[in-house]
Specification:
The chain has twelve helices and eight strands. By secondary structure, the chain is α/β, with parallel strands linked by helices. It folds into two domains: 158 residues, de novo design (two linked rop proteins) (Up-down Bundle); 156 residues, Glutaredoxin (3-Layer(aba) Sandwich), CATH 3.40.30.10. It has a six-stranded mixed β-sheet with strand order 3-5-4-6-7-8, with helices on both faces. The protein has a two-stranded antiparallel ribbon with strand order 1-2. Helix 1 packs antiparallel against helix 5, helix 4 crosses helix 6 and helix 9 runs antiparallel to helix 10.
Length: 336
Amino acid sequence: MALLNIVLKRALANINLCAMRIFRWLLVLIGLSVLALDIYMSQKGSHICPYEGCRIVAKTPFASLLGYPLTYWGVVFFGIAFVLSFSDVLLFFWTSIGLGFSLYMVFLQVFVIGKLCQLCLLVEILVLLLFITSFRFSRVAYALFLLLVGFLTTHAMYTFPPDYTDPALVRAATWEGKGAYTVKFFFDPQCPACEKAFEVMKSYRSDFASVEFRSVAIHKGSFEKALGFYLLCERGEDPWMAFEKIHSGSSVPFVAGGALAVKVRSLVDSNLHVLLGIGIDAVPVIMVEKGENRRVFVGYKELENFLAKNGGEEPPPLMMFHPMTEGVCTPKKECN
């Protein structure tokens, strides 16, 4: 009888173990399926989550981490969780850190973004359930420590992100000519004054050695158009033509979230920081250089006067700021 009890206990333990592993695999399968489907649909121009919260969160900088969308990181997490599902201890350590990451994402949604992403919450619940399957009360201290590590590490990665500015993207948005002036053209894709500045520059493009098109995003919806502009340039479109397409009302090329969106976001933010660093919060801004000499034009009117009078002549031997004139856009007011 004693032997039978031992056999039954071991059999029951094995059944419980198998049931637990099957439950873990089910959670992993759900997580991988949902995330893989969202990645696939995002490549087609839509998302698995139809709710407003998902759309708002997806447009924030928090939708990517270290240059990759969170859906990619989710696939990595669940893939590793499957491998570790055969070991309670290893799965416990992994899911504890993952739960810390999930708690930080919930914190961002509630206190920073102000919207809840239903898809994110589903994934975070799956992480919590995986954590519960490997949790033991004897591991409370370890769990709290690993939760804190996951939470603070995620905070550090978002607070001190690396610079993703891609030099290849900058080169793709640079036009090379045979003139004398090197130009950096800062614009917003929804700025009428920028379009006028573009027309002025186009009239004198033979005077330019190069024109570096640098988009910023100071109006609602501008980033999506900036993304479209840089996508066209990356595909080999002439930057002049790409600018005209974006400003002409043509349909903006669709860009799924991914590495390119992160690079463009970094580049657009970097362009704005350049302007703010010299005390300018308006566009268009045109920096005209020749050798060590530079002129900075805010607005298009003074640029037109300068090019009409100087042609290919040498600018004065110093940096000169031309005051803000008619035709500017700022983040605080509509274009005038």
